[in-house]
Amino acid sequence: MNKAITSVWVVLGLVCSSVILPALAERGEKAQRFLFNRTDMDGDGFISEEEFTTSQLERFKKMDTDKDGKVSFEENKQAIEKMRERLERFSR
Question: Domain ranges in the chain?
Fold first, then answer.
């Protein structure tokens, strides 16, 4: 379990540093709201620790396209590109 959580944090760090943070700075509140709402699963206006953890694990599973329990550089690269495309759509 600790290995999975560590992997999630590594992936989260890579995604944040290369996609989310620059996109938020450029795209503003619309992109921020999209990302927040995506994590606020019960729609109560807050992100609980459980929602955050669940959301990140789901993202990890989506990134792991070959389902080997690990995210390769290529899988990460593809996930970043998909995130950029989604943020682009929501920031118009």
Answer: 28-92
pLDDT tens for each residue of 20-36: 666 556 667 777 888 89
Which stretches of the chain score pLDDT less than 50? none
- Predicted TM-score (pTM) of this structure: 0.56
Total Cβ atoms within 10 A of residue 15: 20
